[in-house]
Specification:
Layout (H helix, E strand, L loop, with lengths): L7 H12 L1 H15 L20 E3 L8 E7 L2 E9 L11 H17 L3 H8 L3 E2 L12 E9 L7 H12 L1 H37 L1 E6 L5 H14 L8 H10 E5 L6 H4 L1 E8 L2 E8 L1 H10 L6 E6 L6 H5 L2 H4 L35 E8 L10 H5 L2 E5 L1 H4 L6 H4 L12 H4 L10 H12 L25 H5 L13 H20 L5 H13 L23
Parallel strand pairs: 6-11, 6-12, 7-10, 10-11
Antiparallel strand pairs: 1-2, 2-3, 3-5, 4-5, 8-9
Length: about 550
């Protein structure tokens, strides 16, 4: 094709015409569906050139979305998909990066999942223009495309035909895949945010909240998400350095254990060296210091997280603070004299007595089955709202990039969607399927919502279900190519799940048989019909080995 006499507008018009009205109709109605727009774009063309001075063009309506992109400059024609981080007039509700980032994340997610369309285009010579899209900068444009060389004003017929074919087929399929992945990721995000909002409302109303549930249900992870929502008004996918600094300032964290006491938490005497001698000095504990910070910044929320709250001796740790943390006695109404009140120096914020500021919120986490503490003080329970986080709810974590973490190159470790949850085929050959298989044998629920005693392990309950956090450890066992294979799943079983299950079953009859049955379910090996019961009575052996 001789383009020596053609303007860029002539080239765009020819491409639109050769793509055909049928394809353009398919594109504009598909975009309407994916973007949830009220109507499709009016022009029955793909590319709409508004300014003759431009050497580039995008699809109509694609300003702040992933967009078809075509350019003609320096004896080259480039075509592909673009991600625009530049300002677009009349789009002022968000920053340009905030508009385009969901599409960038969707593209990277597809790339991480070894999307076949993307791989095929890369084999044809499509690539990103000098960026991996992991660090988007303002006022930049990012292009995934292919560049055709024009020799003596001639674009070869083969190159032109291939460009039309790519635009109509694989580029279109990739465009749709990016949109669908973006919408899926946002659905997961909104589902998780709705859940976080529920907990935030509980915490705001009660001031104190304890998240209970089975091991590995992500209670600590959820507590930090709740704290982010309280501090920033939203859950951050990734915090900037400045946001991290603010979060660390307004969110306190401690993990209780049997040796933890009042002097660590509230105040006490600490040994210090002075002039070669050891003397004891009054020092504030972590919670009292936190409350002092909150009192100096009353306009902002401060959240204090106590992990494994039931592993400490609550009465000894809190002491007289039982009164001060009561939601009805926050602020100076709940002022109490602490055990070391007479040693507090003049000028101290709490010289007249200690109280918990009204802008301080407390979140505790606890496992219902933790044997280190048999019960919690009823006076303490009365001051907290309790909310169970079930293993079923924790599955949402498995769909989050952040929960899986990132490698040294900032690539998400999250497996492909098929590895997490198969849409077709055998649903036991994936993370969620394996999690369901084990949990259904630990405590199997009938249609009526009751325990099926024949298919459940006697003595266990839903509190023993294994949460998603255990399955996130699969990220530690990818093979050398970063792929999750059979060995990855077997390593997860051997090094994390098997030992936990042995601890659950300690002292019971037929432990080894029960473990074998659980392992069979995990591997999706069909059990023999005669051994369906999880509570066989023909073997009285027990095991205490992990």
């Amino acid at each position: 094709m001789d383009i020596s006499t053609l303007s860029f507008r002539n080239i765009v018009d020819k491409i639109n015409n050769d793509l055909g009205h049928d394809f353009c109709d398919i594109f504009r109605y598909k975009r309407k569906e994916l973007s949830n727009s009220a109507r499709a774009s009016s022009a029955n063309i793909l590319f709409k050139l508004g300014d003759d001075n431009r050497d580039w063009v995008i699809n109509e309506g694609g300003h702040v979305e992933v967009q078809y992109h075509l350019y003609y400059r320096h004896n080259t024609i480039g075509y592909g998909l673009g991600f625009n981080a530049q300002y677009v007039p009349f789009y002022n509700e968000k920053s340009p990066i905030e508009y385009i980032m969901p599409f960038v994340k969707a593209f990277l997610s597809l790339k991480n999942q070894n999307n076949k369309i993307l791989q095929s285009l890369e084999e044809k010579g499509f690539s990103l223009n000098g960026s991996d899209l992991k660090n988007i900068c303002p006022n930049e444009y990012y292009f995934f495309g292919k560049v055709l060389q024009i020799q003596n004003s001639i674009l070869s017929d083969d190159d032109y035909k291939q460009m039309l074919e790519d635009i109509q087929n694989e580029l279109f399929n990739l465009y749709v895949a990016i949109w669908e992945q973006k919408n899926k990721m946002e659905t997961i995000k909104y589902t998780m945010e709705d859940k976080v909002n529920e907990y935030v409302n509980l915490l705001t109303t009660n001031k104190n909240l304890i998240l209970t549930g089975a091991p590995g249900t992500g209670k600590t992870y959820l507590a930090k998400q709740i704290a982010q929502k309280m501090i920033f008004g939203e859950v951050k996918q990734k915090m900037t350095e400045e946001e991290r600094k603010q979060f660390d300032e307004q969110c306190g964290f401690v993990q209780f254990h049997p040796s933890y006491d009042y002097t660590d938490f509230v105040e006490g005497l600490r040994p210090i060296e002075k002039n070669g001698d050891v003397i004891f000095k009054h020092k504030n504990g972590i919670f009292k210091e936190f409350c002092e910070k909150a009192l100096k910044d009353k306009k902002n929320n401060f959240v204090f997280i106590i992990d494994e709250i039931n592993r400490g001796e609550i009465s000894k740790i809190f002491g007289e603070l039982f009164f001060s943390i009561d939601p009805g006695y926050r602020g100076k109404d709940g002022m109490v004299e602490t055990q070391y009140q007479n040693m507090i120096e003049d000028g101290d914020t709490f010289k007249k007595g200690f109280f918990v500021p009204e802008n301080v919120y407390i979140i505790g986490t606890m496992n219902d089955i933790d044997r280190s503490v048999e019960s919690m003080d009823f006076a303490f329970r009365r001051r907290f709202a309790f909310k169970e986080v079930s293993a079923e709810e924790s599955k949402e974590m498995l769909k989050s990039d952040d929960a899986w973490g990132y490698d040294e190159n900032n690539n998400p470790k999250k497996p492909t969607d098929e590895v997490i949850e198969s849409i077709i085929g055998n649903k036991e050959k994936n993370v969620i399927g394996k999690m369901n298989a084990i949990n259904n044998l630990i405590w199997h629920k009938t249609i009526e919502g009751k325990q099926d005693e024949n298919k459940s392990i006697e003595g266990l309950s839903a509190a023993y279900h294994i949460g998603a956090s255990y399955f996130l450890k699969l990220a530690n066992y990818r093979n050398e190519n970063g792929v999750y294979d059979g060995e990855s799943f077997e390593s997860l079983w051997n090094y994390h799940l098997k030992g936990l299950l042995y601890e659950y079953l300690r002292g019971m009859q037929n432990v080894d048989k029960k473990i074998d049955k659980l392992h069979e379910a995990y591997k999706n090996e069909k059990a023999k019909e005669e051994s369906q019961s999880m509570n066989p009575t023909n073997d009285n052996s027990t095991s205490n080995n992990g």
